[in-house]
């Protein structure tokens, strides 16, 4: 019977009742279960397939949830979720109202630490271990599972550095598959490869030098070998480190052969692994591709242009430039702080640096943005992909805070294009020579102009810094929008009963604001509505309120955007509706004024 063993596992306690000899069958069923669900519902496939045996072994050997298991990032935690009471709900993964795609503390007692960004597991598990010691509990186990891409991050090394001088009962498991979302890079990757190939002398083991009890590397798909080693390490006190070799996408041939594509492949045939191709003819371009193709075109004409991304070359489309100009485009690994200061260093030498970082990940380099870039007024060009609501990845990945956390920084220009042509033009304008750093934020997904590449690419026009634009005249109410949410506003206005009463202004620059335009607006309109896809606290609307207060205007101002809460997962349309910035909600609002 299909899933005969898995269907009876509702918790790790049930798993531990199974004879060890049957665990390979559990692994087969678990792997097939993940494939069958993700083929239909979508999600992060390759990472979870790669750790099936390791996941089973961890819950089989350790007394979870009493022993504390922390997964780094969480892309690989699907098997963990299924074995810890969420098998029957797994089909709701990443859907509105369903379970999260990442470990989440309020979802399960087995999710000991909420994750979504990388490289936090060692610090978190060490904190738990030290707390256990302080409470007099020296038997509890604390396990951090981290990938070879994540362990290259500075924060992971900070955790290792601290742990090595403690007596904390900590086990760090390195899940080494030589890939994150894109292939792992850097000297540490080369070191780990040498260890795997037996080319590194054992006396040169860097982990041992940090005072860890190191073992491995072992085959992470040999479940019996993994269990045997975990049981041995269970009896050893102090910081321990197990090096496990796995294959991302294990068990699905196509996922093993194309690990980048099958990280999150969309819908596919569960039996063959073939990805269902979405028709893309006559569709607008993805914003990331507008960035990637435009920067490549500009780099061909300007040899000072440099591209930098922290581990997201395919996600940001900087891979176009990396392929043609490998010496001028850099993937620095999961190291956002380094990426920003590296860009700053290059800018001091006259280079024009496009530093492409997902909006949510730039939060990890906030100090560097302030001290290393803005304080020195270096014209680094930050390209913030995935700004606004990103959808199914949920609260850890929404790029909704960037307007608020950037506009308070002196010297910083903050810009959000209304469409892909404006994105192209601001990328062009930035390399003409700016006196200040600039952050260009744009969303995940597609634009609105299908024939962009045919008719517009290369036809650049410089943008005047700080300039706004009146998209539509009106007699009663002024609607001020920032970024691509303007397209919702345009559609909503067209559906209202009295569109002639509604004026619409596009303010792409949150900083500097077009104050001349604002004075004209406030003198003409008594009712003003601001709309953005960022947090309303401290965002674009707040900037307009500050302007009104400073200049003693008394117009009624309504600010719309992301409310003061962490927005959960669901598709973008559903989340916009929840935040009342979708077309229908705006239409109703405009009609009621």
TrEMBL record:
Signal sequence interval, chain numbering: none
Cofactor note: Binds 1 Mg(2+) ion per subunit.
Keywords: Isoprene biosynthesis, Magnesium, Metal-binding, Thiamine biosynthesis, Thiamine pyrophosphate, Transferase
Entry EC no(s): 2.2.1.7
SUPFAM superfamilies in the cross-refs: Thiamin diphosphate-binding fold (THDP-binding) (SSF52518), TK C-terminal domain-like (SSF52922)
Catalytic activity line of the entry: D-glyceraldehyde 3-phosphate + pyruvate + H(+) = 1-deoxy-D-xylulose 5-phosphate + CO2
Binding locations of Mg(2+): 148, 177
Cofactor: Mg(2+); thiamine diphosphate
SMART domains, per database record: Transket_pyr
Gene3D superfamilies tied to this protein: 3.40.50.920, 3.40.50.970
Chain ranges of the Transketolase-like pyrimidine-binding domain: 285-450
Annotated InterPro entries: Dxylulose-5-P_synthase, THDP-binding, Transketo_C/PFOR_II, Transketolase-like_Pyr-bd, Transketolase_BS, Transketolase_C
Entry-linked Pfam families: DXP_synthase_N (PF13292), Transket_pyr (PF02779), Transketolase_C (PF02780)
Residue positions binding thiamine diphosphate: 75, 116-118, 149-150, 177, 336
PANTHER family associated with the record: 1-D-DEOXYXYLULOSE 5-PHOSPHATE SYNTHASE-RELATED, 1-DEOXY-D-XYLULOSE-5-PHOSPHATE SYNTHASE, CHLOROPLASTIC
Protein name: 1-deoxy-D-xylulose-5-phosphate synthase
Species for this entry: Flavobacterium flabelliforme
Lineage: Bacteria, Pseudomonadati, Bacteroidota, Flavobacteriia, Flavobacteriales
